[in-house]
């Protein structure tokens, strides 16, 4: 029997079993997807690439890679408070392994249904390194998107959950990339804070999702807003306690996909109520915003901490 063509694979894996989009005029099968925008909405768009050996282990199972790739991409919509509209998938495969692709597609379908995000189209090519690019888009009420540039002095800094679990389990995952359990879930299936992000639209001023590391990503808000973020190290929920030898890695390791956001002090009670509504186990106030040269200052019992590496960087490693 001949090997399946690119077109057969695409049809088998990507044309059915995904959530339906009610604003979709034309989906998989043409040169572009066509979407009808609702009145008074803005479109949030973002793209995220994951490369084998860089973002996930080369020999990780397809369904886990798919879950991780889609969740990490959709997290950018959560960080803006957007409601998912759909995603495009660009897949570069190093061989025509049908079993891998079927497994990848089963993970993708499951995750797309869990997050409620339709697959709008994509592109499939051959390349030396397995590479997955996910372009996501979502709707935002006009002018309300949670940007990085709107933190103001006097506001609180908040964090949705614990940081560090994914970074600390990476060594174990590299030893056994097939491990799919409670401990590896923060890495393969990071929680995407879509409903909480959306609830924050009327409460938070700025937000970012933590992909590179808490401190490095906090710096993006500080720089974009022109403020100082003062963080209280002992108030930051971490997967190991501050006495643990790997505690600092929790603040810089990344792969967390928690939301870091700022909000006026007057919103404290409403934020706590929304966190309960969204079923968050943690939503902690971890610092405050001050006027001054953009910076992130982390203090532990009054002592200023410094970090040689504040987060993940692709170059200069
Ligand atoms: N190659 C590129 N071309 C155009 N814009 C880019 C490119 N790479 C990054 N950007 C833009 O730079 C900005 C900052 O990127 P950054 O990587 O911090 O965002 P992010 O997508 O939230 O991060 P992550 O990739 O870690 O999830 C984003 O607005 C992004 O669109
Ligand atoms: C196998 C393996 N080794 C290392 C890491 C750590 N890592 C890679 S990219 C990144 C930041 C987010 O990427 P981007 O900024 O490109 O979205 C982090 C924390 C990993 N996830 N898997
Ligand atoms: Mg982001």
Automatic annotation (TrEMBL):
<feature type="binding site">
    <location>
        <position position="209"/>
    </location>
    <ligand>
        <name>Mg(2+) 3</name>
    </ligand>
</feature>
<feature type="binding site">
    <location>
        <position position="148"/>
    </location>
    <ligand>
        <name>ATP</name>
    </ligand>
</feature>
<comment type="similarity">
    <text>Belongs to the thiamine-monophosphate kinase family.</text>
</comment>
<keyword id="KW-0460">Magnesium</keyword>
<keyword id="KW-0784">Thiamine biosynthesis</keyword>
<feature type="binding site">
    <location>
        <position position="255"/>
    </location>
    <ligand>
        <name>substrate</name>
    </ligand>
</feature>
<feature type="binding site">
    <location>
        <position position="31"/>
    </location>
    <ligand>
        <name>Mg(2+) 3</name>
    </ligand>
</feature>
<dbReference type="GO" id="GO:0016301">
    <property type="term" value="F:kinase activity"/>
</dbReference>
<feature type="binding site">
    <location>
        <position position="48"/>
    </location>
    <ligand>
        <name>Mg(2+) 1</name>
    </ligand>
</feature>
<comment type="pathway">
    <text>Cofactor biosynthesis; thiamine diphosphate biosynthesis; thiamine diphosphate from thiamine phosphate: step 1/1.</text>
</comment>
<feature type="binding site">
    <location>
        <position position="76"/>
    </location>
    <ligand>
        <name>Mg(2+) 3</name>
    </ligand>
</feature>
<feature type="binding site">
    <location>
        <position position="76"/>
    </location>
    <ligand>
        <name>Mg(2+) 2</name>
    </ligand>
</feature>
<dbReference type="InterPro" id="IPR006283">
    <property type="entry name" value="ThiL-like"/>
</dbReference>
<feature type="binding site">
    <location>
        <position position="312"/>
    </location>
    <ligand>
        <name>substrate</name>
    </ligand>
</feature>
<keyword id="KW-0547">Nucleotide-binding</keyword>
<dbReference type="InterPro" id="IPR036921">
    <property type="entry name" value="PurM-like_N_sf"/>
</dbReference>
<feature type="domain" description="PurM-like N-terminal">
    <location>
        <begin position="29"/>
        <end position="139"/>
    </location>
</feature>
<feature type="binding site">
    <location>
        <position position="212"/>
    </location>
    <ligand>
        <name>Mg(2+) 5</name>
    </ligand>
</feature>
<feature type="domain" description="PurM-like C-terminal">
    <location>
        <begin position="153"/>
        <end position="293"/>
    </location>
</feature>
<dbReference type="InterPro" id="IPR016188">
    <property type="entry name" value="PurM-like_N"/>
</dbReference>
<keyword id="KW-0067">ATP-binding</keyword>
<feature type="binding site">
    <location>
        <position position="55"/>
    </location>
    <ligand>
        <name>substrate</name>
    </ligand>
</feature>
<dbReference type="InterPro" id="IPR036676">
    <property type="entry name" value="PurM-like_C_sf"/>
</dbReference>
<feature type="binding site">
    <location>
        <begin position="122"/>
        <end position="123"/>
    </location>
    <ligand>
        <name>ATP</name>
    </ligand>
</feature>
<dbReference type="InterPro" id="IPR010918">
    <property type="entry name" value="PurM-like_C_dom"/>
</dbReference>
<feature type="binding site">
    <location>
        <position position="46"/>
    </location>
    <ligand>
        <name>Mg(2+) 4</name>
    </ligand>
</feature>
<feature type="binding site">
    <location>
        <position position="48"/>
    </location>
    <ligand>
        <name>Mg(2+) 2</name>
    </ligand>
</feature>
<comment type="function">
    <text>Catalyzes the ATP-dependent phosphorylation of thiamine-monophosphate (TMP) to form thiamine-pyrophosphate (TPP), the active form of vitamin B1.</text>
</comment>
<protein>
    <recommendedName>
        <fullName>Thiamine-monophosphate kinase</fullName>
        <ecNumber>2.7.4.16</ecNumber>
    </recommendedName>
</protein>
<dbReference type="Pfam" id="PF02769">
    <property type="entry name" value="AIRS_C"/>
</dbReference>
<keyword id="KW-0418">Kinase</keyword>
<dbReference type="Pfam" id="PF00586">
    <property type="entry name" value="AIRS"/>
</dbReference>
<feature type="binding site">
    <location>
        <position position="76"/>
    </location>
    <ligand>
        <name>Mg(2+) 4</name>
    </ligand>
</feature>
<keyword id="KW-0808">Transferase</keyword>
<keyword id="KW-0479">Metal-binding</keyword>
<feature type="binding site">
    <location>
        <position position="31"/>
    </location>
    <ligand>
        <name>Mg(2+) 4</name>
    </ligand>
</feature>
<feature type="binding site">
    <location>
        <position position="211"/>
    </location>
    <ligand>
        <name>ATP</name>
    </ligand>
</feature>
<feature type="binding site">
    <location>
        <position position="123"/>
    </location>
    <ligand>
        <name>Mg(2+) 1</name>
    </ligand>
</feature>
């Amino acid at each position: 029997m001949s090997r399946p063509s690119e077109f057969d694979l695409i049809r088998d894996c990507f044309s059915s079993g995904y959530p339906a989009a009610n604003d979709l005029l034309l989906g998989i099968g043409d040169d572009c997807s066509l979407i009808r925008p609702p009145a008074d909405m803005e479109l949030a768009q973002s793209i995220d690439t994951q490369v084998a050996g860089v973002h996930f282990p080369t020999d990780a199972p397809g369904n886990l890679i798919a879950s991780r790739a889609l969740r990490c991409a959709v997290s950018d919509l959560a960080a803006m408070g957007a409601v998912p509209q759909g995603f495009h998938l660009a897949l570069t495969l190093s061989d025509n392994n049908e079993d891998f692709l079927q497994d990848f597609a089963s993970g993708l379908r499951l995750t797309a249904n869990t997050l409620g995000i339709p697959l709008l189209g994509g592109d499939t090519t051959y390349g030396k390194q397995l590479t997955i690019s996910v372009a996501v888009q979502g709707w935002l009420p006009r002018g309300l998107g949670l940007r990085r540039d709107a933190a103001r002095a006097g506001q609180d800094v908040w964090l949705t959950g614990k940081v560090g679990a994914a970074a600390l389990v990476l060594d174990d995952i590299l030893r056994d990339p097939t491990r799919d359990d409670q401990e590896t879930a923060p890495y393969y299936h990071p929680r995407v804070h879509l409903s909480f992000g959306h609830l924050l639209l009327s409460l938070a001023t700025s937000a970012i999702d933590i992909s590179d590391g808490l401190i490095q990503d906090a710096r993006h808000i500080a720089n974009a807003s022109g403020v100082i973020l003062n963080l209280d190290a002992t108030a930051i929920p971490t997967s190991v306690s501050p006495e643990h030898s790997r505690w600092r890695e929790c603040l810089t390791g990344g792969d967390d996909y928690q939301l870091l956001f700022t909000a006026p002090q007057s919103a404290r009670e409403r934020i706590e109520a929304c966190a309960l509504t969204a079923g968050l186990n943690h939503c902690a106030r971890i610092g405050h915003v001050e006027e001054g040269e953009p910076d992130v200052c982390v203090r532990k019992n009054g002592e200023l901490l410094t970090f040689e590496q504040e987060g993940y960087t692709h170059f200069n490693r």
